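lol ok so funny story. i was supposed to be doing the assay writeup but got distracted and ended up predicting the structure for this chain instead. priorities right. anyway since i did it might as well share w the group, maybe its usefull for someone
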Amino acid sequence: MFFGKRDKDVRLTDKEYKNLVKGMSSKERRDFDRRQDQLRRDREEDRLLGWLEFEDELDEDD
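and the output, tada:
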């Protein structure tokens, strides 16, 4: 579960997730899930870019 901040990656159990979304309409839930997917992709992209920059720095030191 992501809340839009880089330092906030909260893991929820299935029960906790169901409690979180049970009051949402189906449209709200779709929007929420879509936003979570986007935040997850952004975080993975940031991680990959960080790794590539690290490798570039290692290559420059040689």
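Residues 21 and 29 are 7 Å apart (CA to CA). The mean pLDDT is 84.
back to the writeup now i swear
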